[in-house]
Design goal:
The chain is α/β, with parallel strands linked by helices and 170 residues long. It is 35% helix and 15% strand. It contains six helices and four strands; from the N terminus they run αβαβααβαβα. It has a four-stranded parallel sheet, with helices on both faces. The radius of gyration is 16 Å and the shape is globular. It starts with a helix and ends with a helix.
């Protein structure tokens, strides 16, 4: 899907005749999963990324294999992690204060998707987002963490916080 996004951006750039080389990327829930993984693969294309309440996370950990970590990223995608480029991207993690229910992200042992590592980064979205943030910060990547008061798992309710964050990176 990263290549599909590149095609879409190229098409818009061609149609408009002008578009900044680096762009802002926001994803929420499954989109948050895409956004932070895209950040690992293509940081040079991003001015800033906002990762909202992902159900699963890939930690910036080269001792863990994909998708739990980035240890064999090059084998899967033909590229490794570029920490220098990542440090130049604005990063926000964002989640609702009440977004702590495990029921929609926990994978039970009798599921076809289950593995002994499936729920390794935390029991709910808040714990998993905290684990992602900590893994980025361990590598010198500055992360602005935003918890939106009084809301649960609602992507529209975090947009104001995301837009304020992006204003600083345009």
């Amino acid at each position: 899907y990263d290549l599909v996004l590149h095609s879409m951006i190229d098409e818009v750039r061609e149609e408009l005749g002008r578009l900044e080389e680096r762009f802002l990327l926001f994803g929420f829930s499954g989109g948050g999963q895409f956004a932070h993984r895209y950040f690992y693969l293509h940081p040079e294309r991003l001015a800033a990324v906002s990762v909202g309440a992902p159900g699963t996370v890939t930690l910036l950990d080269d001792t863990e294999p994909w998708w739990h970590g980035v240890g064999n990223l090059e084998r899967h995608f033909g590229t490794g992690v570029n920490l220098d480029a990542m440090r130049g991207v604005g990063v926000q993690t964002v989640i609702g204060e009440l977004d702590a229910e495990p029921w929609d992200i926990d994978v039970p042992a009798d599921s076809d998707l289950w593995s002994d590592r499936r729920n390794w980064a935390g029991r709910n979205r808040r714990e998993r987002l905290d684990a992602l943030r900590a893994s980025l910060e361990r590598h010198g990547i500055r992360v602005e963490h935003t918890v939106v008061p009084g809301i649960g798992h609602d992507g529209y309710a975090v947009l104001e916080s995301v837009m304020r964050f992006f204003e600083r990176w345009r």
